[in-house]
Amino acid sequence: MRVAAIILFVLTMASSQAQIAESGFHINWTIVKPTYTDYVSKTSSRGVRLGFTKFINEQFGAGIEGGFTVLDDYVPRQTYEQPGGAITTDIFNYMYNYTLTANGQYYFKKSGLFVPYAALHTGVVFTEYTQFYNAYSSTENKTGAIVRPELGAMYRFQTYGALGLKAAIGYEYATNKIEEAGIDNFSGLNVQIGIVLFNN
Amino acid sequence: MKNKILYIIPLALLLAACELQPQSGELARDMVVQTQYDEPSIEIDIFSTYSTFIIREDTIGWVKRGVAPEDAYLIDEDFTGIPGGYVEPVIALVKENLSARGFDQVTEEDDPDFAVNIVVLEDFSFFQTVNYLPTYGGYYGYYGYYLPVVNTYYSQFASMVIEIVDVKNATGNDYKVIWKAFIGDLYTTFDLKTKTLEAIDQAFVQSPYISKD
Questions:
Q1: What is the reported pLDDT for A19?
Q2: Chain A partners of B27 at a C-beta cutoff of 8 Å?
Q3: How many CB atoms lie within 10 A of CB B109?
Q4: Are the C-beta atoms of residues A165 and A195 closer than 8 Å to each other?
Q5: Is B27 helix (H, G, I), strand (E, B) or coil?
Q6: Does residue A149 carry a pLDDT above 50?
Q7: What is the C-alpha to C-alpha distance for residues A200 and B190, in angstroms, rounded to an integer?
Q8: Closest approach of chain B CAs to the CA of A107, in angstroms?
Q9: Average pLDDT score over residue span A110-126
Q10: Which of B62, B63, B181, B205 lies 20 to 30 angstroms, CA to CA, from B158?
Q11: Average pLDDT, rounded, for chain A
């Protein structure tokens, strides 16, 4: 009986040490490089993602994440022919993306401070397409679905410590588009780096 | 918990500092120039049937809420801060462009083929879209000048409108506007005179059908 109790204790401890934590909040700085470049093509470092992860066990987790990114591009001054006329202007194309996703995570290591993972995010994206030209602007809003596979890693500074780092790369594909303006689905690569606040 | 908040606050501030719109200096680099023509008139190449035009020499119209019709014009004395004036250089450049396209300026008594109206609209906007179908409010100029009917929404913009009005084929008091140029924004530009003159030239460049030949 005493031996059984010791074995149970050891297994319990091993299990609790292997799981990263009970849960964690993260905030990531996000860089996005569009792969669909008809509307915006510049790499943007103006993004942030906030998320919560519940570590289900040592190998799986699930979470939710909200994100915001701004992408832009400059179209030099040119003349656009229109029915019955023409317009000459330079244009600043802006794309404001607001995302809310749920995700599932798989951890490649069951223990240790360094935990690489793969994740799949799916959710909704609200996009505000705004064109600025001189003092004027026009905006079109679209809502769609987004899918984002992601590879990353978390590093916890100390066992049971609250603070860790998180880095990831991902690809995102959104269904948003403006057909009448010839703007197709947005897609892009992203790099994220941030901090994780673990709850034991 | 306080420690955690301390980590998040700087990151939130960093994001807040991000530039979310173009800088005003970049936006105001050049004015927007929109031109529109009456399609049936251009289809019959109406400009080839014209030879002469009339234009006011020293005033341009001015439409602004609260401005009485008898005060609805601008003269160079209204632009004392601009060396060389503003109104007369604008008029001179429009005349120059029309002359270069083969038209001669005449007086009202000489029975001109078309009239040119130049009006500054303050607090109104005509620019609604760029890549999509052009739409704009209902400004109707006519021969007799400077009392235009404006039917569009209020905005904080100022635009210059140049109109070519068909006098030769007018029936009664029905004068058809066959070409319009909208130039703006006059408020936000850092060099009102230079940028307006560049925009006027551009209006004619993008309207090659305005030609006697």
A1: 76
A2: 92, 132-135
A3: 7
A4: yes
A5: helix
A6: yes
A7: 58
A8: 24
A9: 94
A10: B205
A11: 90
Residue B171: domain span = 29-205
Q: What is the CATH number of the domain that holds A50?
A: 2.40.160.20
Q: Both tokens of residue B156?
A: 């904080």
Task: Give the pair of three-digit tokens for residue B10.
Answer: 């700087």
Q: Is residue B10 part of a domain?
A: no
Record the tokens describing residue A49, joined without a space: 């993602």
Tens-digit pLDDT profile for residues B136-191? 233 333 334 433 434 444 467 888 989 998 989 988 777 888 999 999 889 889 99
A154's tokens: 């978390």
Position B79: which residue type? F
The domain tally of chain B equals: 1
Domain that holds residue A28: 2-199
Identify the contact set of chain B against chain A, taking CB-CB distances under 8 A: 3-4, 7-8, 11, 14-15, 18-22, 26-39, 125, 127-134, 156-157, 184-185, 187-188, 202, 206-207
Type of residue found at B16: A
Distance from CA of A155 to the nearest CA of B (A): 16
Q: Does this complex have an ipTM over 0.90?
A: no
* Sole residue written with tokens 């004027």: A136
**Which among B12, B72, B210, B94 is positioned nearest to A68, based on CA atoms?**
B12
B146: in domain: yes
Q: Count of domains in chain A?
A: 1
Buried b (16+ CB within 10 A) or exposed e, A149-182: ebebebebeeeeebebebebebebbbebbbeebe
Q: Is the dihedral of CA A185, A186, A188, A192 positive or negative?
A: negative
Peptide bond into B185 cis (omega under 30): yes
Chain centroid, CA B73 distance in Å: 15
Residue B27 and residue A84: Cβ atoms within 8 Å?
no
Quick: pLDDT tens for B76-122: 999 999 999 999 999 999 999 999 999 999 998 899 999 999 988 88
CATH of the domain at B38: 3.30.160.670
- CB nearest B202 (choices: A80, A88, A132): A88
User: Under 8 Å CB-to-CB from A162, ≥6 apart: which residues?
Assistant: A197, A198, A199, B3, B4
**Within 13 A of B12's CA, how many CA atoms are on the CB side?**
8
Which residues in B lie closer than 8 A to residue A92 (C-beta atoms)?
22, 26-27
Pair of tokens at residue B192? 């009102």
